Amino acid sequence: MERTMNIQDIHSSIKQAYHRIKPYVYHTPLVHSLPFSNNTKVNVYLKLESEQKTGSFKVRGSFNKLLGETSDLNHEYVTASTGNHGMACALALSTLGKKGVVFVPITVNPAKESSLREYGIELRKYGDDCVKTEREARQYAVANEMAYISPYADMQIIYGQGTIAEELAQDLSHIDAVFVTVGGGGLISGIGSYFKVFSKETEIVGCLPENSPVMMESVKSGHIIEMESLETLSDASAGGIEQGSPTVPICQVVVDRWVTVSEEEIANAMLLVLEKHHKVVEGAAGVALASFFKCSKEYEGKNVVIVLCGSNLSMDNLKFVISKSK
Where's the Tryptophan synthase beta chain-like PALP domain (predicted)? Predict the structure, then answer.
C-alpha cells in the first residue's frame, strides 16, 4: 500500500464531498477564544461543530454517504449508533426521502435516544457495547437486503467528516495544531488526511478519555485490539473498533500524537466552555479541550484549533458537570 498516494486520494475526495454536501450542512463557526487564549498564551480557536445540524459533526458523513449512493435510489438503510450518527442518518434519510432503521446500544444516552425518536425513524436496541450493536445491525441489513451505513468504517463517511478541515482552511490562514476527539476514528481520519496534504506542518492530535483509549492502543499495537471501555462522559467516543475498519491504518499515518484525559479533566473542560462561552458541549467535545489544556504549554504563541464535536448532552451529565463548580 502506498500510503502517500492514498492520503492524497482521500484529500481529493474530501474536497469533492465538501461541494456535494454544502447545501445540506452548516459551515460552522470558528471562534477565537479570548479567555482560553489569555489563560494559556496560545491563540485558541474553537470549531463549533456543536452547532451543526443535529448537534454533531456526524451529519457531514451521513449526507455524503447517501448523496454518493447511486446503486439503488430506492434502497433502504440500516445503521448503528450511540446516538449522534443515528440522528445524522435520520436527518439525511428524511431530507433525501429515504427509509432506514437505526440500532443503538441498550446503554444509549437518554437525551440522544429522545432526540433520535423525534425523527420518526425505526429504532432498535441491542447490546451493551457499540461493537456488538454494529454487528447486529450488519446482520440485520444482510438478512433484510438493506444497505448498512457504518458510523466510521466507510470511506464515504470519512470524506464527509473531513470537510471540517476544508472549512478550517478557508477560515484560518495558518494552523499549527488541531485537537480532535477519537472514537472509531472517522473524524480524525478525515481531518488528518486533509491536512497531511494541505499543510504538512499542522500537527494532528488525537484525544481520548482514559476510560476508553481503544484507537490509541490499536495504533500502538498495529492492529485492532479488544479492550474493556469503562464508563465515561465521552460516551460518543467510547467502545471498541470494528474489525477491518480503514480508520486504524489511516490514523497510523495522520495522527502525530495522542493525549488521554481523566473524567475530572473532561468535566472541568465542559464546565469552562459553559462558563466562558455560555455553550453546552457533550463529553466528547470536552475530551478535545481537556487534552489541549493538558499540554497547552507546548503550544504557546501558536494557532491551535480545538474541534468541539457535539452538544448532545443528557440533563444528568449536565447537572454533574455543573456540580463540579461547587
Answer: 22-310
Q: In this structure, how many other beta carbons lie within 10 angstroms of the beta carbon of residue 198?
A: 16
Alpha-carbon distance of 116 to 105, in angstroms, equals 13
Predicted local distance difference test score (pLDDT) of residue 1: 35
What CATH number should be reported for the domain whose range is 58-153?
3.40.50.1100
pLDDT tens digit sequence for 287-302: 999 999 999 999 999 9
Domain boundaries, the chain: 3-57+156-323, 58-153
225 vs 215: CA distance, rounded Å: 8
Calculate mean pLDDT across residues 173-187. Answer: 96
pLDDT band at 326 (very low <50, low <70, confident <90, very high): low
Residue 300 DSSP class: T
More confident residue, 229 or 258: 258
Is there a shared CATH topology between the 3-57+156-323 domain and the 58-153 domain? yes
* Closest C-alpha among 295, 281, 165 to residue 234: 281
Q: What span, in angstroms and rounded, lies between the C-alpha atoms of 78 and 76? A: 7
Distance of CA 202 to the CA centre of its chain: 19
Domain 3-57+156-323 classified CATH 1.10.8.10? no
Per-residue pLDDT at 74: 57
Q: How far is CA 264 from CA 107, 110, 197, 216, in A?
A: 21, 22, 36, 20
Which range (105-119, 168-182, 238-252) has the least confidence?
Answer: 105-119
Q: How far apart are CA 287 and CA 266, in angstroms?
A: 5
CB 102 within 8 A of CB 213: no
Could you give the angle at the alpha carbon of 139 between the alpha carbons of 137 and 140, nearest 5°?
65
Summary mean pLDDT of the chain: 91
